[in-house]
Design a protein that fits this description.
Elements lengths: L16 H7 L21 E8 L2 H10 L6 E9 H11 L11 E8 L3 H14 L9 E6 H4 L3
Antiparallel strand pairs: 1-3, 1-4, 2-3
């Protein structure tokens, strides 16, 4: 019996025997057991768009997210140039009143709505170090985006 990786998620050491075995379509042997990593289905998802003044602001927001009372599902950033190209080709309008040089798209699994609102309030009260009024607006819930 061949045991490959166990609970290891990524292995960069040499030939990937697991993929070789899978690609052989049963000519090298048969699978008698498998270990699966299962995760629960996410609850209600919230999507937020933050306008931040600089790349340092993107990193500062990421650091602040390390101590949040909810599960982060995605954290992505893009620049104003990327947004301009998207607006040009998709005819989208910016959902934030004041433009910025960098934007962060945050998707979270919402648990307690009150704790989320409290965290958002504290984020705006403290503000970023570079500028006091960074814009952040909740742009949609996962249901509005078509997620289940």
């Amino acid at each position: 019996m061949l045991q490959l990786n166990g609970a290891l998620e990524k292995n960069n050491s040499g030939t990937d025997l697991r993929q070789l075995f899978i690609g052989s379509e049963g000519t090298l042997g048969i699978i008698t057991g498998a270990t699966l990593k299962l995760t629960p289905c996410p609850g209600h998802l919230g999507v937020f768009l933050f306008a931040v003044p600089s790349l340092a602001g993107v990193l500062e927001l990421f650091v602040r997210l390390a101590r949040v009372p909810f599960t982060i599902m995605a954290y992505e950033f893009f620049t104003d140039r990327c947004l301009a190209r998207l607006q040009k080709h998709r005819n989208l309008r910016l959902p934030i009143a004041s433009p910025a040089s960098h934007y962060v798209l945050l998707e979270i699994e919402q648990g307690d709505e009150g704790r989320l609102e409290e965290w958002m309030r504290s984020l705006f009260e403290r503000g970023p170090r570079q500028r006091r009024n960074d814009g952040a607006e909740r742009i949609a819930s996962s249901r509005a985006l078509g997620a289940t």
